[in-house]
TrEMBL record:
Annotated ATPase F1/V1/A1 complex alpha/beta subunit N-terminal domain residues: 10-74
Similarity annotation: Belongs to the ATPase alpha/beta chains family.
Ion transport recorded as keyword: yes
InterPro entries given in the database record: ATP-synt_VA_C, ATPase_F1/V1/A1_a/bsu_N, ATPase_F1/V1/A1_a/bsu_nucl-bd, P-loop_NTPase, V-ATPase_su_B/beta
Residue span(s) of domain ATP synthase A/B type C-terminal: 355-455
Role description: Produces ATP from ADP in the presence of a proton gradient across the membrane. The V-type beta chain is a regulatory subunit.
Stored Pfam families: ATP-synt_ab, ATP-synt_ab_N, ATP-synt_VA_C
Keyword annotations from UniProtKB, A to Z: ATP synthesis, Hydrogen ion transport, Ion transport, Transport
Residue ranges constituting the ATPase F1/V1/A1 complex alpha/beta subunit nucleotide-binding domain according to the UniProt record: 131-350
Entry's transmembrane regions: none
GO BP annotation list: proton motive force-driven plasma membrane ATP synthesis
Organism expressing this protein natively: Aerococcus viridans
UniProt name for this protein: V-type ATP synthase beta chain
Length: 473
C-alpha cells in the first residue's frame, strides 16, 4: 500500500522538496494531487537521507506548501507498449496526443532501460538506405550504428530529418520489417506540425511512432523523451523483430534542459555551465543502439544536434563524437551555395561503413568509389585554394579539371531535391559518371580490376551538362 504525504517543504521553480520520505529511491515517479483534483507527475532527482528533491513534469504555479498531496509509486516511469503503437503520436512522456485514445496492453517497460552486457552485442554489418547519395555513398549508415548529424541554427536539418524518415529503408533485397521512432525535443509548434504533416502526407506515418516535446513543455519532460523513444524502439526491435531507426532531434535541447535542471539543483557546473555528468547522460542514450545476440531486430540511431555558434568543439558535439561511430556534418558554406542536403563531405565519416558495404552488401565497387570521391573532392579543394592565390587561369589543365569536378560533385552528387530518393545503385553509377571526367591514371585510389569493369571516360558527356539542371543519372 502506497503512503501518501501531505505538504511540501519548499518549491523552487520546477523543483519541490519533501522531507520525511521513506521507501523511495532515485528516478522513482511521484504523483501529485493539487487542491484535491489537479493531477501532476514528477520524478525524484535527488535523495538526501529522508529528503527527496522532485522535478515536476508540469508548471508548479498552482502548487503551494499545504495544498498538495504526494504519492510515491516506488518505480520509475513506465510506458505501455503494443504493436498498435506504430502510426501514433505521443507527448514527451508517452501520453497520446493524436485523439486516438490510450494504448491498452499488459506490457509495461521502464523508460530507463536495462543495462546491456557488451559481450551480448553483435557487430553491425547490413546497411540502411537513406536515399541521400552523400550519406549512402560516402558515410553509409549501418544497422545498429549511432551516427549523429551535426548542424547549426537555422540550417536545413529538420528537412533532412523528415526526408530520412520518409525515404529510409533496408537494403534492396531485404524482406525484413522496418520501423521508425521519431522523437522531437524542445521544438516549436510549427516545426512539430511540419514533421507530423510530412509523415502523414508521404504515407510514412504507418511505420512511424512519434514523440513530441515542444519548447513550452516542461524541461524535465525533455530529459525523459529520448528514453521513452528508445524504450519503444527496443520493444519494436527485440520483441517484435523489426529493424528500427530512431531519430532524436534536437539533442542540444536535451543538453540545455539538463543544464537548467542542474542549475536549479545548485550543482557545481563544468564546461560552459553544463553539469559534469553530461557525458554519462549522453552515453546512456546513445549506447542503447545496437544488435543483441539472440534477439531479433536492431536499433539504429541518428541523433541530430545544433552546434552553438557552429562550434564543433562545443561540449555537446565534442562529447557526442566520443561516444558515437562517426558524424554527418552539415556545412553552412555548402548551404550558401544552394546545395541540399548541405553535407560537408570532408569532416563527415562513418566508422562502421567499411564492414557494411561491398560485395554481398551494397556493390563490389562501393569502397573504391567512396575512397576516390573523397580523394578527388579533396583535390578539388586544394585546386580551389591554389586558384585563390595564383588565379584560376594560371592553373594546370588537370587542376582546372579538379575545380570543375568539385562544382559538379557538390551540385549533382551531394545536391538533390527534397522529393528525390536515390538507390545505392544510382548513387554509385552517378559517382562513376563524375569520376569519368578524369583520365584513368588520375584514379589512384581504385583497384585495377574495379577500373577495368566500371571505368568509362565521360568527360564530354558530363562537362557539357555542367551548366544545366539536367540530372546525370
Amino acid at each position: 500500500m502506497a503512503i501518501e504525504y501531505l505538504g511540501l517543504n519548499s518549491i523552487n521553480g520546477p523543483l519541490v522538496v519533501v522531507d520525511g520520505v521513506r521507501g523511495a529511491a532515485y528516478n522513482d515517479i511521484v504523483r501529485f494531487r493539487v487542491n484535491g483534483n489537479e493531477e501532476k507527475l514528477g520524478q525524484i532527482i535527488t535523495m538526501e537521507g529522508e529528503k527527496a528533491i522532485i522535478q515536476v513534469f508540469d508548471s508548479t504555479t498552482s502548487m503551494s506548501l499545504d495544498n498538495t498531496h504526494i504519492q510515491f509509486t516506488g518505480h520509475g516511469l513506465e510506458i505501455e507498449l503494443a504493436p498498435e503503437i506504430q502510426g501514433r503520436v505521443f507527448d514527451g512522456i508517452g501520453r497520446p496526443i493524436d485523439n486516438l485514445g490510450p494504448i491498452h496492453s499488459g506490457i509495461k517497460r521502464d523508460v530507463n532501460g536495462a543495462p546491456l552486457n557488451p559481450v551480448s552485442r553483435v557487430y553491425p554489418r547490413d546497411y540502411i538506405e537513406t536515399g541521400f547519395s552523400a550519406i549512402d555513398g560516402l558515410m553509409t549508415l549501418i544497422r545498429g550504428q549511432k551516427l549523429p548529424i551535426f548542424s547549426g541554427d537555422g540550417m536545413s536539418h529538420n528537412q533532412v530529418a523528415a526526408q530520412i524518415v520518409k525515404q529510409a529503408k533496408l537494403g534492396e533485397d531485404s524482406d525484413e520489417e522496418f520501423a521508425v521512432v521519431f522523437a522531437a525535443m524542445g521544438v516549436k509548434h510549427d516545426i512539430a506540425d511540419y514533421f507530423r504533416r510530412s509523415f502523414e502526407e508521404s504515407g510514412a506515418m504507418d511505420h512511424v511512432t512519434m514523440f513530441v516535446n515542444t519548447a513550452d513543455d516542461p524541461v524535465m519532460e525533455r530529459l525523459i523523451t529520448p528514453r521513452v523513444a528508445l524504450t519503444t524502439a527496443e520493444y519494436l526491435a527485440y520483441d517484435l523483430g523489426k529493424h528500427v531507426l530512431v531519430i532524436l532531434t534536437d539533442m542540444t535541447s536535451f543538453a540545455e534542459a539538463l543544464r537548467e535542471v542542474s542549475s536549479a539543483k545548485q550543482e557545481i557546473p563544468s564546461r560552459k555551465g553544463y553539469p559534469g555528468y553530461l557525458y554519462s547522460e549522453l552515453a546512456t542514450i546513445y549506447e542503447r543502439a545496437g544488435i543483441v545476440k539472440g534477439k531479433p531486430g536492431s536499433v539504429t540511431q541518428i541523433p541530430i544536434l545544433t552546434m552553438p555558434n557552429d562550434d564543433i568543439t562545443h561540449p555537446i558535439p565534442d562529447l557526442t563524437g566520443y561516444i558515437t561511430e562517426g558524424q554527418i556534418v552539415l556545412d553552412r558554406v555548402i548551404e550558401g551555395k544552394n546545395v541540399y542536403p548541405p553535407v560537408g563531405i570532408l569532416p563527415s565519416l562513418s566508422r562502421l561503413m567499411k564492414d557494411g558495404i561491398g560485395e554481398g552488401f551494397t556493390r563490389e565497387d562501393h569502397s573504391d568509389v567512396a575512397n576516390q570521391l573523397f580523394a578527388s573532392y579533396s583535390g578539388a579543394n586544394e585546386a580551389k585554394s591554389l586558384a585563390s592565390v595564383i588565379g584560376e587561369e594560371e592553373l594546370s589543365d588537370i587542376d582546372k579539371l579538379y575545380l570543375k569536378f568539385g562544382e559538379l560533385f557538390e551540385q549533382k552528387f551531394v545536391g538533390q531535391s527534397q522529393d528525390e530518393t536515390r538507390s545505392i545503385q544510382e548513387t554509385l553509377d552517378l559517382g562513376w559518371q563524375l569520376l569519368g571526367i578524369f583520365p584513368r591514371e588520375e584514379l589512384t585510389r581504385m583497384d585495377t580490376e574495379v577500373l577495368d569493369k566500371y571505368y568509362k571516360n565521360t568527360a564530354d558527356e558530363v562537362l557539357n551538362q555542367q551548366t544545366t539542371d539536367k540530372p546525370l543519372v
